[in-house]
């Protein structure tokens, strides 16, 4: 159906993706506005419903209401459904239904599916989609079982299972929504800062969900034979490992005399690891984000910008974009014409796309910060910057100002979350893509740079 619509109206993938996600968000906002969605039985203001639906579909986690205290079981179920759709992507969900109905998946559908998961090759794309679906439900199921066992001892069996399922899906999709408001509103997972099982399970789900579907397939095919991995997988796994390790050490050093001061060694290590992983688009927190030192907040914002990996449930500029940017700087300093990594040379078009993404990302964030600081001058610029980067990176962490935002500021955050999930470059392409490419090129003339 999507392909017929695309062909009839000549929509590009970027345009159809934006339209579909926007439609899903509107439907979700409508459902969350209904009295049945709130515990009080009252209508929810549409801007707040829109904010929540966008945060769920864009797997961000920023909230204007505590999910457990404000929303009913129906509302929580809608949020969970939106998280799952947003995490997998609408095309993967559509493919699942086509497979269940035994419908034929043609070449156009396969090409569309290839674009949706950022795959390079169209061959084997349906098999990849099946593996994505199977892997997602398997990993979420395993996480749900572990968390359900833990939560059931505190909440009872029924509530424990529901919480296990909710938090497993939310963690795997890097959404950051939680139901811990039963203990303390907006507390996220701070109650479990020293719980090994909860920390390791949530962290594992976040990392696996954030490395990308293509990396899954590579690991599945080649097991532990790292040399056989595609270059994309090597960059993602190597960069992810280094970012987690180095970030954990940095957080430990910065916060050891602040938030980690009253913790034992196990809690310090778990909290440092969690804080190293969650800013790269997960949104959960086991320590009070608002109480972080300014240096920790700044480093957290840096991790928000990097985000996860391409073709995953994560946001940010992506690890590959970050690596290419660093390699370009190194190449320029060394006066080298090529970008080389793991014995391979990268094509020049990749550099152009990487710098386009970084530029649009930074300019969008700066414009949003300027707008919100003008609308609400009473808010601290550091808190606004944290909120903006959290939104555009689909992270979901906050210093606590989300609930203080006025209508226009909320709308700006909604736009940022939407662009962060679809991709800022993809959104601009959907609006301004030039279909009339001219073959004639202008004369070349040099300019001075630097």
UniProtKB/TrEMBL annotation:
Per its UniProt entry, which superkingdom is the organism in? Bacteria
Please tell me which top-level EC class this enzyme sits in.
Answer: hydrolase
Q: How does it sit in the membrane?
A: Multi-pass membrane protein
Looking up InterPro entries in the UniProt record yields:
Cat_transpt, TrkH
GO MF terms on file? Answer: hydrolase activity; potassium:chloride symporter activity
GO CC terms: plasma membrane
Protein name, as recorded: H(+)-transporting two-sector ATPase
């Amino acid at each position: 159906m999507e392909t017929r619509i695309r062909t009839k109206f000549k929509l590009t993938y970027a345009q159809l993706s934006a339209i579909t996600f926007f439609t899903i968000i509107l439907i979700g906002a409508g459902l969350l506005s209904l009295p049945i969605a709130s515990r009080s039985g009252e209508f929810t203001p549409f801007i707040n419903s829109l904010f929540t639906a966008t945060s769920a579909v864009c797997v961000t986690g920023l909230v204007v209401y505590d999910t457990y205290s404000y929303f009913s079981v129906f509302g929580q179920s809608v949020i969970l459904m939106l998280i799952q759709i947003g995490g997998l992507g609408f095309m993967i969900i559509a493919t699942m239904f086509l497979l269940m109905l035994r419908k034929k998946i043609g070449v156009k559908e396969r090409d569309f599916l290839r674009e949706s998961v950022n795959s390079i090759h169209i061959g084997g794309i349906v098999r990849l989609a099946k593996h994505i679906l199977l892997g997602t439900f398997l990993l979420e199921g395993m996480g749900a079982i572990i968390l359900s066992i833990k939560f059931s001892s505190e909440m009872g069996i029924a509530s424990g299972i529901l919480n296990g399922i909710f938090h497993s899906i939310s963690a795997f999709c890097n959404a950051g929504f939680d139901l811990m408001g039963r203990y303390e509103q907006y507390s996220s997972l701070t109650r479990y800062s020293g719980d090994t099982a909860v920390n390791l399970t949530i962290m594992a789900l976040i990392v696996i969900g954030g490395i990308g579907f293509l990396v899954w397939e590579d690991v599945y095919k080649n097991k532990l034979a790292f040399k056989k991995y595609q270059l994309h997988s090597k960059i993602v796994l190597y960069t992810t490992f280094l970012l987690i390790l180095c970030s954990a050490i940095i957080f430990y050093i910065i916060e050891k005399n602040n938030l980690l001061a009253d913790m034992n060694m196990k809690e310090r290590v778990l909290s440092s690891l969690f804080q190293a992983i969650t800013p790269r688009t997960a949104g959960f927190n086991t320590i009070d984000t608002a109480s972080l030192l300014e240096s920790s907040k700044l480093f957290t914002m840096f991790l928000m910008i990097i985000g996860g990996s391409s073709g995953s449930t994560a946001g940010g500029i992506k690890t590959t974009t970050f690596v290419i940017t660093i390699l370009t700087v190194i190449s320029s300093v060394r006066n080298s014409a090529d970008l080389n990594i793991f014995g391979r040379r990268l094509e020049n078009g990749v550099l152009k796309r990487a710098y386009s993404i970084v530029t649009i990302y930074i300019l969008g964030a700066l414009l949003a910060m300027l707008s919100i600081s003008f609308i609400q001058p009473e808010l601290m610029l550091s808190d606004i910057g944290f909120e903006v980067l959290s939104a555009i990176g689909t992270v979901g962490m906050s210093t606590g100002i989300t609930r203080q935002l006025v209508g226009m500021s909320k709308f700006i955050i909604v736009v940022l979350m939407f662009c962060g999930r679809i991709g800022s470059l993809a959104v601009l392409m959907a609006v301004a893509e030039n279909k009339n490419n001219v073959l004639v090129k202008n004369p070349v003339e040099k300019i001075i740079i630097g």
